[in-house]
Amino acid sequence: MALGLLVANVLFMVWNLYAISDASREVRWSHETIVRLEDIRSELLKAEIAEVEFVYSGKERNLTQFNRSVAKVRNSLKALSGRLHDNPTRRSYLLAVERAIAAETAEIGGVIGARKAGAPVAILDDQLQGRMDRVERRIDAMEMAETEYRKSKQDENNDLFWSAIYAFVAASALDLVLLLGVHYLSYRSRRELTLNAEWFSTTLRSIGDAVIATDASGRISFMNGVAEELTGWGEPEAAGRPLEDVFVILEEMTREPAISPVGRVIATGAIQGLVDHTILISRGGLERPINDSAAPIKNPDGMIQGVVMVFRDVTQDRLASAERERFYRELGERDRRKDEFLAMLAHELRNPLAAIGYAVMLSSQFDTREHLDLSLDVIRRQMRHLSRLIDDLLDVSRISRGKIALKQDRIDAGASLVNAIETVRPLIDERGQSLEVSIEPGGLPIDADPTRLEQIFVNLLNNAAKYTDNGGKIKVVGRKEDHLITVVISDTGIGIAPENLSQMFELFVQGDRSLARSEGGLGIGLTVVKKLVEMHGGSVTARSEGIGKGSEFTIRLPAAGYSEDGDSAPRPALRVPGPTRVLVVDDNVDTVHNLSKFLKILGLEVEVAYNGHEAIEKARRSQPDYILLDLILPGMDGYEVARYLRKETSCRDAVIIAITGGSGDADRKRCEASGIDHHMLKPLDQDILVTLLSKS
């Protein structure tokens, strides 16, 4: 009998130990489930951010983070599914989360697909808002359920423990050995429970959100460190106090006292989800916006034994949201400016093309000398205008990419200013404007790139002349101020609205477009000025009293010690030595025809070729002194033709001049590597061409 009782007691104790171990394992697994859910929440947020960045930027690399986050979410869901397969209740929560996530990722995928298909950002913008709320609710519900499940397992541990104790007491009289054995097993069980309790407590104290637990009457029984920091109360002094004394909250909009989430849980027995627009007032009076949620702690009978509340400070979230909204507004503004710029560019390109078209039409209908001269004059002017537009665009591109290298020298800024004035003077005289110039005598020494410095002055003077009425006044002042060279260009023109002053040097900004439209331009001149001035270590500012009150632009550049080494040597007179043989190579028949006629007028012997192979054959036969070579040819390109000709004895000393539409450093370096002597941009500048052909 005693042996039977002993065996039965042992079996009963073993069963209890296994049950306790199983319950402890379930507690640990429940914690791991909550951690997995938080990981899923974090990765979904990353996926949504990646989606937003892709929608607004259109860059494919933003999808890498999206795909990585979705893969992590799927792995976590798979792990949870394997862990919870034998628990229908907990699995039902997981299935709800999986369905919400599937719907969320499907919607995100739809938005990404639409964006790839070219859908406008404005149409997709509404689809980017508020989709995470559904997933958040499902995850919060599952977390609350897991917290309740874990609590129930701890209660189960307690019941099992006392069952083991009672069994030990009942069987202690049978055998001292049995008593010692039960005592040993009981000790181990208590130790495990204590470790589990400490582990659970440590977990709550180490998480990033604030946690407060209360008893069934709403009195505080636990606070972690984050809750102490946000409320201003320490756990020892808050313990036993009503929650309302420590957790003081207001409705953000009305400033009325808010209903405690713990009170709602005790009243309803249900989990309370996240509540927005709530303000927490700390003990010291500091206000913080928070989100909070609460869940009941129930015993096995379903009676509420307490409430656990989790809340967090959302101040940084609010700031991040405001920053995102500001970023999206700025992105939209940049897109608007870009669209306006493209419309202006199309208009500015069509204007000279239309004028050229009319001139061609006029010359084809009337072959009198008067009409031909008029047409040629129009075509020359419009070609120069197109060249200036393209040069401005290329300057902005090169400056933005850091591709412009300054060729600095010790120069007189006053001389560059005078040259710029002479360049713009025809426009000033045409408009009948008065020009007052005051340049400090003795020179304005500066280390600068003379070409770029003159470009700065010409841009500002052109603007002053363009946006000043006929008969208006323009004033130019150049002076030295301590270590600075200061140039001030002012006018009595249309002026600048105060709200536009801060944007005048930004790309594509053109002030009052209704006024600027009549004068043309792309709105990039001041951007070029600002970038070039900054590359010289200086600054440029704009000032205006408002519309109709004129403008003033001030340039400040570092001064340098200046000593004049003497007058520069006079430029040699242009000449075209003869007889000179020229080979023109281009696949455009009109270009070859017109350029050949121009060269023949200069008294040169001209041969033409329309492709690379023909050029090589004619070069061997005629042995030209100069070769005007288009770089884009059918079959064999100009670089290959140049390399082949340099191997020919008859063409080794010929001067090869490349004719191209590309102006980058890479094009020039490739020309040098191919044996090309000079590099000219289309359309050709006849003065530069004559100068090159005049060199012996």
Give structural notes:
This protein starts with a helix and ends with a helix. It has a six-stranded antiparallel β-sheet with strand order 2-1-6-5-4-3, with helices on both faces. Strands 8-10-11-13-12 form a five-stranded mixed β-sheet, with helices on one face. The longest helix is centred in the first third of the chain and has 56 residues, at 2-57. α2 runs antiparallel to α3, α5 (132-171) packs antiparallel against α6 (176-206) and α19 packs parallel to α20 (638-647). The protein folds into five domains: 2-203; 208-313, Beta-Lactamase, CATH 3.30.450; 324-400, Signal transduction histidine kinase, dimerisation/phosphotransfer (DHp) domain (Helix Hairpins), CATH 1.10.287.130; 409-558, 2-Layer Sandwich (Heat Shock Protein 90); 581-694, Rossmann fold (3-Layer(aba) Sandwich), CATH 3.40.50. Helices cover 57% and strands 17% of the residues. By secondary structure, it is α/β, with parallel strands linked by helices.
What percent of the residues sit in helical stretches (DSSP H or I)?
55-70%
**pLDDT averaged residue by residue:** 79
Instruction: Briefly note the structural class of the backbone.
Output: alpha/beta
Tally the structural domains.
5
- Widest sheet, order of strands: 2-1-6-5-4-3
